[in-house]
């Protein structure tokens, strides 16, 4: 019997990796898929002197820290700063850090990296840490329906999925309100789909990506609630309210007590070890 025709066909249009949590992303043409999401995604994180994670919510200038991923290192650049080189497999010593409700073991990246972030952000006492691969930090089982989905320092899930059509819909509303359109970078997705209708990603039970080495199966599980970060211009770190104000007119989600949502958090059901590439075909079925 032939396989059933999928409800939705799409294309993987863009891929983003965010090596340092809340710093700028890196747009890539391909990315290996690990159990925790795209390779090196949210592998590093900035913390304060108590080990508590910090983000653009407190320090919008983190948006101006731009990573470059090389074979054995990630290079960070920021205005007025010399480049900071982070060896992918280099750490300085153990650390204990907190990201949302999770307190986990990590690896401190040393005094040079700490001083670099403290100087750029004007915040003494900051440290840069690396996720410990021995740690198993799981997504909320309540949202994954019991599936164990590990993360590194992402907010809560391995992948974030957006669509071009959803952004087009927002930008049409922004223009109608007299505002400039915005880029998808403000929403920090990992995967951006083309060929679907606006917010179809909210309604799909599963995404099947035809990677070159085999099928990757992803399950969208939780709408992504939006904090003030989408109001921050990633090119200047200036903040203005129009993005969230516009979303408030049509994206309040009753499943999350009226929180504004945009993009879907997703977990990996199959395909760890495959490489996702821009242009990969994606099929999906509606959630019932």
What does this structure look like?
- The chain has 288 residues and is mostly beta strands.
- The chain has one domain (8-286).
- The chain has helices at residues 111-121, 141-144, 164-176, 242-247, and strands at 8-17, 26-28, 30-34, 37-38, 44-47, 66-69, 73-77, 84-87, 93-99, 102-108, 127-131, 137-138, 150-151, 159-163, 191-194, 204-211, 214-225, 252-253, 259-270, 275-277, 281-286.
- The strands form five sheets. The protein has a seven-stranded mixed β-barrel with strand order 1-15-14-19-17-16-21. Strands 5-11-10-9 form a four-stranded antiparallel sheet. Strands 4-3-20 form a three-stranded antiparallel sheet, with no helix packed on it.
- The longest helix has 13 residues, at 164-176.
- The chain is globular and about 55 Å long.
- The two termini are 24 Å apart.
Number of distinct helices: 4
Estimated structural class: mainly beta
* Spatial sequence of strands, sheet with the most strands: 1-15-14-19-17-16-21
Radius of gyration: 19 Å
Mean pLDDT across the residues is 96
Q: Work out the count of structural domains.
A: 1
